Amino acid sequence: MSHASTLKARRQRQKTRKHLEVAAKQAKKQAKLALAGPVVKREKVKKEKVKKEKVKSEKVKKVKPTKEELGRQDAKQNKAAAGKKGAA
């Protein structure tokens, strides 16, 4: 027997063996299902969807700063600018 025919025979044997194993597993599974009896399906309960209501947010109007506050801001900016010049 040549090497090629030996390999061919081995492949064929592996195929048939695999088919037999699969068939045996399926038969075992079918027998198990037959013993269990008919399957009873549970009814699905649909959950009601709750719609979220959109809450309108009120827009806050920007308040313009008074002259006093503007003066304070300018003073702060001037101090900061003077501090940077002194450090350099």
Question: Mind explaining what this structure looks like?
Answer:
This protein is 62% helix and 0% strand. The protein starts with a helix and ends with a helix. The mean pLDDT is 86. The protein is elongated. It has helices at residues 3-36, 67-87. 0% of the residues are buried. With 88 residues, it is mainly α. It is built from 2 helices and no strands.
SSE layout:
Layout: H1 3-36, H2 67-87
In short:
By secondary structure, the chain is mostly helical. The chain is built from 2 helices and no strands.
Unreliable sequence segments: none
Helix content: 55-70%
Q: What's the assembly state of these chains?
A: single chain
Shape: elongated
Keywords:
88 residues, elongated, 2 helices, mainly alpha
